[in-house]
Amino acid sequence: MALTEKQQDFCFKYLEFGNATKAYKQAYDCENMGADTIKNEASKLLKHSKVAQTINKIQKQARIKNNINLDTQTKNYLE
């Protein structure tokens, strides 16, 4: 089962903001929701297996890319 568009949006917003509640507010319609409900739903979404896997995968890819860039910059600096 793939992530919904809103779940994907939540993942990217979470990685952008580092805050699940803020990400949830950006990805979902929360107009009629209280602050506690938003916080609880955001927390549940972070624990959703597919969402957690997606966030971890993106973070891993970013670390690999950043390490490659750092290695390249370090080598260029030392040459």
Strand content: under 5%
**Number of helical regions:** 4
Largest sheet: none
Structure class: mainly alpha
Form type: elongated
Low-confidence stretches: none
Say how many strands there are. Answer: 0
Helix content: over 70%
- Spell the H/E element sequence: HHHH
Mean pLDDT: 88
Radius of gyration: 16 Å
**Terminal Cα span:** 48 Å
Describe the structure.
- By secondary structure, this protein is an all-alpha fold.
- Helices cover about 80% and strands about 0% of the residues.
- It is built from 4 helices and no strands.
- α1 (about 5-15) packs antiparallel against α2, α1 (about 5-15) packs across α4 and α2 crosses α3 (about 35-45).
- It is elongated and about 60 Å long.
- The relative contact order is 0.14.
- The mean pLDDT is about 90.
